[in-house]
């Protein structure tokens, strides 16, 4: 019998259970007593937060990581993002990936008019005297290394905070940072 979990990965944690380099890092296993062979489906980098699915079922991992499953992110960006920049994000922008230039696939993107209720981040982003910030929603079906951060930088609005809020039909909802919820299965 397989186990499946929803987790709100906090800022500052790696999306893995083992890290063998010298510097100590915070790992997912510190948040909950996961069974052996539990794996994260996809990754969120150490500086990112939000919905992460974990499973002991490798086939389920393949289904969720497929290009058919949308992943939605809320990005707090430096400055007041323009409609023109949001349109550029929708149509695809050029980013660097594996030492090459890459044009991102078309995606959904929209300005968030209200600050999302995501709770405080473990580390303060910065204070208001450094200028205004704004929030944008970006929904992808691909997931290149640090893609959302590279995309917002490409249109002139670097990401300050990044939170994945949805994977397919599964939403972060009110799950608090560090909270783990075991579920029967994933209905993506």
Automatic annotation (TrEMBL):
Residues 3-154 form the Pseudouridine synthase RsuA/RluA-like domain. Its EC number is 5.4.99.-. PROSITE patterns: PSI_RSU. Keywords: Isomerase. It is an enzyme of class 5 (isomerase). It holds the Pfam family PseudoU_synth_2. Belongs to the pseudouridine synthase RsuA family. This is Pseudouridine synthase.
